[in-house]
Amino acid sequence: MFKKLITESMGKSPWLFHINAGSCNGCDIELVAVLTPRYDAERLGFKLSGSPRQADIVVVTGPVTKQSLPRVLRAISQVPEPRVIVTMGSCPQSGNVFRGSYSIAGPLSKYVDVDVDIAGCAPKPEAIIDGLALAMKILSDKRAAMYKARKVKPAAAEPAASAEAVSEEPVSDVSADPSPDTAVNPEGGAD
Amino acid sequence: MNHYPILAIMAYFLCAFLIVVFGKNRAVRNILGFIGTAAPLCLLIMLAEPVLFNGAIISYWMGNRAPVGGYAIGIALEVDALGLFFGLLIATAVFVAMIYSFSYMSHDDNEPQYYTLFLMLCGGVMGLVLSGDLFNMFIMVEILTFAAVALTAFRNKVFGALEAAFKYLVVGCIGSTCILAGTIMLYAQAHTLNFAQLAAFLPGNLNTATIIAYALLFIGFCTKAFLVPFHPLAADAHGAAPAPVSVLISGVLTKSGLYGIIRLTYILFRTMGLGTVQFWLVFLGSVSMFLCVTMALAQHDFKRLLAFHSISQIGYVLTAAGLATALGVSSGLYHAMNHTLFKGLLFLCAGAVLHETGTTDLGKLGGLSKKMPVTTVLFLIGAFSISGIPPFNGFASKWLIYQATYQKAVESGNIGFLLVTVVCLVTSTLTLASFVKVTQSVFFGQLPKEYENVKEVPFGMRLGMGILAFLCIVTGLFPGLVQRFLTGPASNAVFHANSYIDAMMGFGYAEKFGLADTLPVSFESVGVWSPISWLCLLLIMLFAITIVALTSKRDRISAADKKAQAANAVSGPSFLDGAPAANKYELFFGGEESTYSQVGGDDLFWGFKHNWRHYFSFMHDLHSGIVNDYSLWAVVALALAMLYAMIIL
Amino acid sequence: MTVFLDALRYLAYILIFPGFIFCFLTGMLLCGIDRKLVARMQKRVGPPILQPFYDFFKLFGKETIVPAQANRTVFLLAPLVGLAAQVVLQLFIPVFSFSAFSGVADIIVVLYLLLIPALSVILGAASSGSPYAGVGLSREMVTILAVELPLVLVLLAVAKTVGNAMGTGLCFSLSRIVEYQVANGSLITKLSMLPAVAAMLLIIPGETGSHPFDAAEAETEICEGMLAEYSGAPLAVYKLSHSVKLLTMTSLFTALFLGGACRWVEKLLLGIYPAMAAGIAIVVEIIILFLICAVLVAVCVSLIHAVTARLRIEQLFKYYWTVVTGLAAVSVVLAWYGL
After folding, report:
1. Which CATH number fits domain A2-186: 3.40.190.10, 3.60.20.20, 3.40.50.12280, 3.30.43.10?
2. How far is C67 from chain A (nearest CA, A)?
3. Which of A47, B247, B477, B497 makes an SS bond possible with B344, Cβ 3.0 to 4.6 Å?
4. Can the peptide bond before residue B373 be classed as cis, meaning omega within 30 degrees of 0?
5. Minimum distance, in Å, between the CA of residue C122 and any CA atom of chain A
6. pTM, whole model, 2 decimals?
């Protein structure tokens, strides 16, 4: 009884924790705008939480600067399982215009499994809501997968595979799909 | 049975003397100390059945010098329910403090002297409450004052100890002198020093001299109880004295002052016009209560904070006892008992912290709950008790006090007593606030590096604290029984001066003076509170909730095991190789690495203090710490008391 | 047999009505109504009314992280004790003429029992060791201090008014206060009680820690304050006891001032269908209680939330000790002189 209830609720009550990893503040404003009366993401149950301990979905904006990398990862690690990691805007996915800069450690997918990428600079509110809705679904799936994993092998729980959000807006100048090969090696840049 | 009271007093003094002689050896010293405190406790418990339950009054004439021709010449002990009630409190607190001392004082020099002074102080207080004679009372006051002064300065290498002792000595002596002067004036008027005879003589013969004697005695006992304006002494003394001595000073010595005030007001001077004395007592009590709790909020030393709370709680007792209603006196005595128990417990906890860490500065401590779990639990019991959280004992008595004050307000139609109720209630919340501050800054929060190796205190100290904590819970859960067997008889005795007189001077003595007993003694409480039922409900509810929480535990991811915490591992399956390590069990610091950052106790409630900043700065300026100022306050208080007595009483 | 039945009856009180399940359902619903209303007042669609239930069950499905620095026992036990104390408190508050456990506690006790859930949050927060929690608990304690004084005055005013009318001088028993109102009409109709009603309406948001009096949990400045380190099931329990607090405060208001609101119900039912009147009356009364609570939440939680910005903690303290206390004091004085 609880199992079904919990899995279902998981998809209806996503709490966001927002990390700015060196963003230009454009995406941050857009994220907050999504919660305002015009788009009202709260109707889907979204809530911005102040502490990562209470969050389900981590929204990362910005190109993940070297300064911010350990802090971003620390905050992400403090989010309890199951969690969904969403990158918002082009920066955390590819580096955007900052790509190649000596101070950039991104993209984020080099360090953690990113579940949803919301492309755009900055993404449209519709795209953000779409991406977050997808994140909700992934969250629910992850929870279900954890139950399944526990049934088979109680020791470790493996989350569901990541998925990619389809942005309504065509991506401007940078590829939405970050490839580690083309990304600048952050260590090299620093030295 | 008649010999029990004198044996109880003698046991203390005898063991004090024996420790001087044979106290070099540790084992002998401890055994003597144990006997010296355990024996009086047993003796008084044996007295409980006849005196408290059956209402007997024990009178004892030293050397069998009974009164001749209606004049009491000999030295007398008289134990009624009120005296025995305080005696039991004192014996219990002293016994626990002694057990605690065995471990606590084992690192100090001059241990024999400590135990001698300790037992002298106990004997002095015990003699005071069991005495039936005003002059003996004064002698006991002297003994206990000097023992207390010496004990305050016992750790004379501690900063401020000598200064505190000096202040105490000066102002304490002013108090003792007042008592002596009052005694002399009474003797000149009544030609007797015996309580019973005075109680028979004074009601019909009140004049300016006796009224002024009352004022003198009152101020004298106020210094013993550290009521406002004598409160700074207590703070200094407690800050410097070893913890068991603090228990004595707060749990025992202040009680002797209260006992004196109650005895004087209700037995000796009961025709003085209780309405006007009432105002005085209740006003002083309320001021002490509120002023000292705000002072406590501003403290940043554990023991000083407790010291101010001590006086604040004494203020409660005086307020309630000053109401001159049966409910009021009974609730005041109840609170006096609870104060001894919980404040003793709290001081012992402060001592435990000092013993292990070497400091009581709230700004330096933190996170001790992981290192000292037992002390933490015991401290929380004490803190909840003093803040009046149900179902602990502080609530039971405070709840009666609220009722008593409000009932008084309704009965007398005086809206001032309503204000007293409000002050009581607000003080209680302020008390809670300052104990939240202590809890946060000593036992919870973050552990400073230098206290990584702190251990739990030895068994002897835990035992002492455990006894008091147990009593705190028991007296909180059974308020009905406490009222029936302890505070009820004691408050009954307060309003039955005639039987007190008759027991001492022979039957029919009081009638000769045409005295009637002061007040009816029955009361019914207007409220309802049944702690046992509440506790049952809470436990059932807790059980149900826990069951629900546990049934769903299977569905949840269990809380992480300790191994994972130890290995500073990258958390979760979503981290890829090469990502910098991050420990999810660290505290959240906005993403920063977790560092030591304890929210200290100093300014925890700035939101409150900011609004009261003028008051606090005024208080700060007022408490200069100069002994001349405090002596001046004593003199001013004495002058005001005498003026009030002469003009209004 | 009767003992057994009695035990069963009391168990039903504790677990179903007015105990755990009732508190759980209504508390959560009130919370949902509040969120929905705030959204509607801001011209948003808002979350579904069942959103608090989703939140609750979701949190139960999350991992529970206990920080390494925290005192594990206190950290995990505090929410449970807080919830238990909160629900037990609800048992003492009469639902119009029905009261499950009236002989256990009076209004002064209720005043103190209200402290226990808050205290358990404070202890849980302190035990986590987080500095955010430290700041949060400091603010929470100051909020308690601020609210306590006017609440005391309101309760004393009620005690005096009812006592005057009953001829006993003062009356602390909550069930007798309600009985009086059932017999003589609600206290809200008395002139002397109007300032107290206003004060109580302002106390409810302070006591439940809702906007603008939520400095203790300010999620934007101090990361949820006291709950900064809580996750998973303990957080769910805290959220639940917070919503039960909404129910407790509003039904306390109902008991104090609107106790006579259901006088007509039983009379009406006796006229229509006397056989089952008492049984049906209680159902109707529960529904009316819920409606009143919902209206109160709408007025003093949602409306105030929607139109104000958060107060700083010292402003909050000042506000309560001047405006609200003033209102309550006026009421006490009026009650004292029997108006």
Report:
1. 3.40.50.12280
2. 10
3. B247
4. no
5. 17
6. 0.87
